Amino acid sequence: MTDILSRTEEIVKKASALGADEIIAKTTIGKYRQVRFSNNQVDTSVAWNDYTTDVALSWKKRLVATQIHDFKDLNRNIKKLFELAKVSKENPLFGGFAKGDFHYQTNKADEKLRDTENLTEYVFEAIDAAKKKAGSQINSGGILFTKFEDVYLVSSDGPVGIDRRSAIELSIRAFSQREASGHGVECSSTLKDFKPSRAGTKAGEIARLAKNPIAGEEGVYDVIFDPLIFGSMLAVWSSMVSAFNVMVQLSVFVDKLGQKVAPEVVTLKDNPASYSLASRIFDDEGAPTRENVFIDHGVLKTYLHNTSTAKIFKTETTGNAGIVAPTAWNTEMASGDISEDQLFREVDKGLYLTNTWYTRFQNYEKGDFSTIPRDGIFAIEKGEIKHSLKDLRLSDNALRLLNNITGISKERQHVHWWSEADPPSLSPYVLIKNVHITKSK
Amino acid sequence: MEEDIIDYALEYAKSTRNEYAEARAHNQLLERLLLRNGNLETYVSAVDSGFCVRIVADGAVGFASTNRWTKQEAKDIVNLALNYAKAAKRKEKLVFAEEKGVTTKWTVEQKKKVENVSPEEKTSALAEIDKALASCGVKVAARMSQCSTDLLSKYFVNSEGSRISSFAPKVGAYFYITVMEQGQTEQAYEQFGYSGGWEALDEWKITDKLIRNAEILRNIITKGKAVKPGTTDLICGPEVTGIAAHESCGHPMEADRILGHEMSQAGRSFIFNGGSFWIGTRIGADRVTVVDDPTIENSYGYYAYDDEGVRARPRYLYKNGVINEFLHNRETAAKLGTRSNGSSRSTNYDREAIVRMANTFVAPGDATEDELTEGVKYGIYMKSFTEWNIDDKRFNQRYVGREAYLIEDGELKYPLVRPVIETTTQKFWMSVDAVSKKVEFDAATCGKGDPQQGIPVFTGGPSIRLRGVYVK
Predict the structure, then answer these.
(1) Does residue A189 lie in a domain region?
(2) Which of A366, A245, A65, A359 is nearest to B176 (CA)?
(3) N or C: which end of chain A has fewer CB within 10 A?
């Protein structure tokens, strides 16, 4: 372990000796495993072993970066990178990397996830749970993914750290009929808290309820968002608080710092806590990560920053570097004060959406977008699920939806799914009023 | 690239008990520049290099990859892949459709070699585009631009005797602009892609296109009018035709999707055995032929052999309005009783090859652009699109116009603000009554796979005219 840290440090020293102003080297030794399944069978099992050092250096406000996989040509690679910096173009807005002798929290990665090789049993546990809920004819597919990373970071500006990051996640989609499906996810940073049957049960239950869907109708509805689909919305809002996206106007939050952007009940934060799939103790500049409340009781409090964007906005880094663009790690919505059941009872006539995909914007600054609910879509009448629907689209505005939140459940769930609900989040059931729903004509 | 290690991996794999083994190496020299509002945020230059093995044993697939180039590592990942395949315990055994071993080399020629273009020249090219855009007379409030070059060498060997080397350079660029007028914004995204050398930049004419885009966005803000919702005629420009071909023909015709392998992520297809749609079913008007062709020279989706060593060829997906041929890899082909048509692609050494499109487009018709417009008494011309999406069975889709105009008595009148067509695959293609002669292509990055494998493609086609569709 110290050997790898020394090698990482050696890169920083070599670049420094050449004359670079600031250097960060980050070595990741990653072990990733995946099982993909469909039609209740394992299709492919995958193993990735990666050994990579990311290097970023600056010289007279010129920022260049590379990846090194092979230490045999280290001197040549570092020299080449420094030469690139010399012929690169100055960025007057480059604000340097995080500076300081930081003390990091202790990481809590699960060592068991380093050596877990037989993952198919978890897959079958989830498939069996779905079958229990919806019958043996149910057809399930999905992925199981594990990550175990050792990350070594050395910066010429002071930060030196070793992080160990682990995660396991399962995503299962179960079909009870050709057009009746449910999706469940189970996400954890430790094996101990990973219960694949929970995802299977949820997928099976929704698939059972989703049977015999009828075509839905366009209109304006009060909508209960399941934690999974709400995770997709949290991903939208958290990407839009990245200061980089604000600066290129790919955000509805441009010029809205300090303003009310949501009702009082809404508090959103970024929190790469130890229980999260995205847990980490430092960011890509070596700044300690922390909890950042970005919407506090409806008020936009901060954007997410690295050192450069923080300087532009005359503030401090929030520990969300990306060398170029700050990024959210794990979005959490503060839980509400009513139960999931009570939330449903608040809906006289509306919809319950369980999942979505293909979220696309017309204009990020205005926030107009649409997304396509998939898996269970349900009509709610007098607080109860009445029947299953299909072929609807949510066509609305990201800021308007945030403003129309009226209820949040006590229950929250860790969700992450493919690129549709990414970054991961801790997501509740949420009631949003007056949501615009459209369909094909 | 150390081919001897790949050969060793295969030889070692062949010494174990399995039905099939392959090894594939990728060596990519990547450069990426990112400019934000004229400032060079970063210049990335890197070599990404590694290899993978894929093994079929006991009727199941195991895949493992590494970026450590040692024989021991090769042996380790073979053992991993083998163990993983055996642990799958599949009831239904996988087999691959028959292919003969191939020994060949293929390359994409560069007129102006990317290797000979200095970082200064690359940076200047992007900076000049940005400068022209910033001073074009339209207030372009935010500009983000990225340019990438990728020199990709591959080496593929399998237990059936294939040995294929390739070199395929690619150049790509994308731009995101925000125009502000009268306190309002409109945004546009443009992507460019090319297989070949730096000559791509001469061919793309990026500056002209972006300035035109900026002027169009300003026009939408200052002169655009709302659409009167209703049933009308619609002319789709090549960009809109292309995205429809990709989303509602290319994707649903991927055989792995049809067989359910992508059921939990990218989804399934409205086409399935025993359903309303299958090979031979009419899905569109007679004039609609959609082709996926990886062999178009210099196209973004070009390749000569796929990542299973199968020779590339054009695939006629919808032919004269009828579902004709699915996109196959060797596994899906075997399952559906046919041969692979060379559609198996992977983005890197650490990603398994899966069924992908290459360059998907509507085949040309016999009308001129003017004839299409002249035949419309009242309708809409949607030249380009902004927001779009489609459901995961690839049947309900939506395209929102970016540059769009009202047509009255065969003439373009005024710009329309983001007209929306939200319709089904069948309705869209059945409504086509005229197809122009002139095919144009756009570069795109197609998403599929888990982890995501964003792969270069072209979308394209001619202008097409749809009769009696609902636009709002």
Answers:
(1) no
(2) A245
(3) N
Nearest to B389 among A50, A52, A358 (CB): A358
Q: Do B61 and A81 touch (CB under 8 A)?
A: no
Domain that holds residue A60: 2-129+140-173
ipTM of the complex: 0.96
Residue A73: predicted pLDDT = 80
Q: Which of A242, A332, A240 lies closest to A278 in space, CA to CA?
A: A332
* pLDDT value of residue B334: 98
Average pLDDT over residues B181-195: 97
User: Quick one: pLDDT at residue A1?
Assistant: 55
pLDDT digits (tens, 9 = 90+) for B58-103: 999 999 999 999 999 999 999 999 999 998 888 899 999 999 999 9
List of chain B residues whose C-beta atoms are within 8 Å of the C-beta of residue A117: 83
Which of the four pLDDT bands, split at 50, 70 and 90, describes residue A14?
A: very high
**The pLDDT of residue B355:** 98
DSSP β-ladder status, B322-323 and B315-319: antiparallel
Residue A397, both tokens? 């505005």
Nearest-angstrom CA–CA distance, A299 and B441: 45
Number of inter-chain CB pairs under 8 A, A vs B: 239
The pTM for the full model equals 0.97
Q: What is the mean pLDDT of residues B195-221?
A: 97
Helix (H, G, I), strand (E, B) or coil at A403: helix
A242 and A168 belong to one structural domain = no
* Banded pLDDT at A342 (limits 50, 70, 90): very high
What pLDDT, on the 0 to 100 scale, is given for residue A107?
Answer: 86
Establish if A206 belongs to a structural domain: no
Domain of A104, CATH number, reads 3.30.2290.10
Task: Kindly list the domain boundaries of chain B, sorted by start residue.
Answer: 3-223, 230-471
All residues of chain B having their beta carbon less than 8 Å from the beta carbon of residue A171 are 264-265
- Inspect the interface and report whether the beta carbons of B48 and A69 lie closer than 8 Å: yes
Residues of B in contact with A419 (CB under 8 A): 447, 452
Q: What is the pLDDT of residues A72-110, one digit of tens each?
A: 788 889 999 999 999 999 999 999 999 999 999 988 899
Q: Do A363 and B187 touch (CB under 8 A)?
A: yes
Contact between residue B14 and residue B56 where contact means Cβ atoms under 8 Å apart: no
* Domain B3-223 bears CATH identifier 2.60.120.1440: no
Instruction: Judge if A152 and A288 occupy the same domain.
Output: no
Is A200 inside a domain boundary? no
Q: How far apart are CA B118 and CA A83, in angstroms?
A: 12
Closest CB to A249: pick one of B40, B178, B260.
B178
**Token couple for B293:** 């062709």
H or E stretch at A208? helix A196-209
To probe the interface with A, which of B44, B349, B431 has the most A CB atoms within 10 Å? Answer: B44
Which uninterrupted H or E stretch holds B5? helix B3-14
In this predicted structure, what is the pLDDT of residue A28? 96
Q: Do A324 and B63 touch (CB under 8 A)?
A: no
Residues 309-348 of A with CB under 8 A from B: 323-324
Mean pLDDT of chain B: 97
Identify which of A39, A120, A364 has the shortest CB distance to residue B260. A39
Together in a domain, A112 and A243: no
The predicted model gives A249-276 an average pLDDT of: 97
As a whole number of angstroms, the distance between CA A123 and CA A140 comes to 10
Q: What is the mean pLDDT of residues B452-471?
A: 98
Long-range (24+ apart) CB contacts under 8 A made by B15-19 are B16/B55, B16/B57, B16/B78, B16/B79, B16/B82, B17/B57, B18/B55, B18/B56, B18/B57, B18/B82, B18/B85, B18/B159, B19/B56, B19/B57, B19/B59, B19/B95
Question: Which of B65, B70, B264 should we substitute to test contact with A (largest number of A Cβ atoms within 10 Å)?
Answer: B264
- For B433-446, the pLDDT digits (tens) are 999 999 999 999 99
